[in-house]
């Protein structure tokens, strides 16, 4: 009996050792085959691990001797094994993770895509950087998440989510978002309802507001000093007072931007809609010597970053104002190739962090107001804002019924659109696109599509420009949609590009804004000006003097930035858009929709 | 020979007993069966275990940023491939124009389990990250002769070839011929010529000497690296060590910081808010005598000249930068999850082949990654900067190769911004923070 035991004690460890060596060899083979051991550091790590394992085989021999002296040794042995396994299971992952970081550097952070509005982009970007640093603090200095924060103009983000992020949207707006942080909860509701059904590729979990920012009337500081009084005043009262100063009051399009809509809803309560619509001009960024309806955080950022003499703008807080309330919604994609499953945990962590003290401080520093924290040091008069607020309304935005009623009122009150369209018919417009069509033909097709956006009272006129002349094709006031295509089909593009001349000519033809009409000029060009007598400055002066919005669509060789076309469009609150022949039709349609004020 | 004879003699005993000749025929039959089995095995069964050389069938998905070539030349090439290979049609999924947005979508898709992409079109700075994360399949048996050395280098990480160069790019120095007589040799030369031109006040539009992209995005990283290299300084050396703390680096940053100041500054102050397009605009408006930009600006500046009715344009010339340029461009790599790696490899070899490269450059303006294209006379007439560009690409340098490039770039930019606000001085922890960033911290 003694003999047998002796033999067993001497062979068992040998078997154990051999077994472990075999396991190591097998594992080594599989690791090498999958390419996990690609650097010398990983080989060193592996070597250390394997040596420990094999050494443990000889330790078993000693243990075996020891164990024999214990009563109930199997029970004890099992208990020890369980405890050891538990300890290893607990301690191994962090130890291994730390070892990997030391030897191999940080693992790549998980990619989280955050969609927000253009207004909130800079603030949310700052907050996101702080969250990344926060994740590093608990992970050996390695960030576990990288937040790519991007924005879509107006309500295009909401539209893209509703249509499950189609491929043009992937190209034009950005990657599939994992987090959607719009300006207002009212934007969320509709999208959540539309995407909630069975068969929808996207699931949106609506979340709470992370912070808010009241909609304010931003006025140049000297004027604010005249206007401001000690008692609370409504939107209507402030608007009337500021209006006496003969300055333009800019408002973002209420169909596309939430701040413009919230302010207009409040304005309609105290003023006649038609009066409001004749008093405001459309704009989407602060301009010198003009007031603007915007959110407090936009004004604060403007004063902090792009303003020489602080503060450029002062916020007037109407007592009946609504607010942007920035809800954080989690977005989940069901299609297996774009689900980005890994992002779900860090997205939730980001949401939770925004509710912590650290997160709220970050929001505060970025110019937003978290509901459960007092306004921080950023909110001071030097930047044109006030720390303490006295707002009458409990709700952030009007209810859905009120909004529907508002849209109806707006449709009736807004001025009719009067558009002069001028098309480039220079030689380069006959160049073929990728699909083989001529650029000019693509443009004509785009015009045809765009004209379907015309509202009941809207009108248009049309001209083409080439060589050194501008040729009117359709006089202003037409509502016939087919006339444009018919007239354009007779045009044979050739010669130079008198773009400046065409814009100045269009300004004359379309006429200034009046009580019942809002005018706009849309120019489509594929190159910079070559043959006009007018310089760019001449055009800028003319546009500024007439105050008519000018929109330019640049295709082909033309570029908004490189050819300074934005200088012209910025003079009047218009817009220059770089387009491609693929998106030309959609871009034109979107512009017409905007100037004619149809539904976004 | 004895063993043979013995075996022969023993043979009759091997079959069923008694039937001597039949034994021999049994043997013959055995041999015949053996031969048939061998043939079957080698031609029928063995190929099942050997990797086939045939292209897999099915759609090839290419993830790529928006096609920014003139006239959609990339798509034209894909159409051509599809016409020639109807069984392996390729489809481009176009991602946003912004590089960070492209990266974000590609990384997210690469992490999926599903086979959702066959080919990635990667920015040159992403090779290391994608290779280290295991998103790419290494390329084997590819003929890499004929590619320019630098672009090909950007396709390798830790000695392995992960991609093939699709198009390349290098920064050029644009200068106005009416104000600058000789190609400038160094930063001081640029400063001197600028000061002279500004003093002479030949041109009322001229407000500064030099413009670059100093807005806070990748452009600032590129511009700062190039200026540091022009002064023979460096940020990260060949071995991956951070060497930013040197007199030469400081001198370059001081040149930039000092240049931005003054009534008639050497460096256009608006540069700090400008990207490539806005710099081009400043140059064409006559505000500066020198501009650092990518060759695409040449086409913008030249564009529409054919239509012009004799109005004076800016008369300009291009030269190499005073130091090496940063290498730009994109590389095509195969996704590790692709179930069609051979077809995908054939596709990227087609897209990076001499004929495709010629078309992309000649018609689309995307700088070719093969040297032979630059010798073509049509390319030279279409793109007069081709020769200079080729030299710039040959002299170009890669940005630091690290899987954490975007971290590095962020950190480096914050150092450069600090230096610009503090007369070219480096922040105290510049070296540590860059070293940490190179490790992803």
From TrEMBL, chain A:
It comes from the Bacteria. InterPro entries: VWF_A, vWFA_dom_sf. Coiled coil: none annotated. Residues 418-595 form the VWFA domain. It holds the Pfam family VWA. PROSITE patterns: VWFA. The chain crosses the membrane at residues 12-30, 42-60, 72-92. This is Mg-chelatase subunit ChlD.
UniProtKB/TrEMBL annotation, chain B:
Belongs to the bacterial solute-binding protein 1 family. One of its GO terms (cellular component) is ATP-binding cassette (ABC) transporter complex, substrate-binding subunit-containing. InterPro entries: SBP. SUPFAM superfamilies: Periplasmic binding protein-like II. Keywords: Membrane, Signal, Transmembrane, Transmembrane helix, Transport. The chain crosses the membrane at residues 26-49. One of its GO terms (biological process) is maltodextrin transmembrane transport. It comes from Lentzea waywayandensis. It comes from the Bacteria. GO terms for molecular function: maltose binding. The lineage of its organism: Bacteria, Bacillati, Actinomycetota, Actinomycetes, Pseudonocardiales. The keyword Membrane applies. This is Carbohydrate ABC transporter substrate-binding protein, CUT1 family.
